[in-house]
């Protein structure tokens, strides 16, 4: 959608559209948009009726130069930075992943209740001072 390609049209030119996508980080979306625009620029669209080409179709010169590609057209290259080996620190050894996840979940669950209690306690302090 950000690349300016309609879902139905994308399927007709060989782009798979997955409506279940959940990862919407800006980095991956920008990378996808860049990749789709590059694909679209390299693509040569033949008109359905050769006598009446439409707006999105390729020009006659491009159609003459067109060749059929076989194999992977534009493979996705995932670049991973390898981390160098290092000594595990004492903090990392003592870190308890499950306990910290449970704590984070409990803090998220009790956030509203704790805020309400703190507010009530502050109001009681104000009343005691009077």
UniProtKB/TrEMBL annotation:
InterPro entries: Ribosomal_eL13 (IPR001380). GO terms for biological process: translation. The keyword Lipid metabolism does not apply. Signal peptide: none annotated. Keywords: Ribonucleoprotein, Ribosomal protein. It holds the Pfam family Ribosomal_L13e. Belongs to the eukaryotic ribosomal protein eL13 family. This is Large ribosomal subunit protein eL13. It comes from Pedionomus torquatus.
């Amino acid at each position: 959608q950000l690349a300016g390609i309609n879902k139905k049209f994308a399927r007709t030119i060989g782009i798979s559209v997955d409506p279940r996508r959940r990862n919407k980080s800006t980095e991956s979306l920008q990378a996808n948009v860049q990749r789709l625009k590059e694909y679209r620029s390299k693509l040569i669209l033949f008109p359905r009726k050769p006598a009446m080409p439409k707006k999105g179709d390729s020009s006659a010169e491009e159609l003459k130069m067109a060749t059929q590609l076989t194999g992977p057209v534009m493979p996705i290259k995932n670049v991973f930075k390898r981390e160098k080996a290092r000594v595990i620190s004492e903090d990392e050894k003592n870190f308890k992943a499950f306990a910290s996840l449970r704590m984070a979940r409990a803090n998220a669950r009790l956030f509203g209740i704790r805020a309400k209690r703190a507010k009530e306690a502050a109001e009681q302090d104000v009343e005691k001072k009077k």
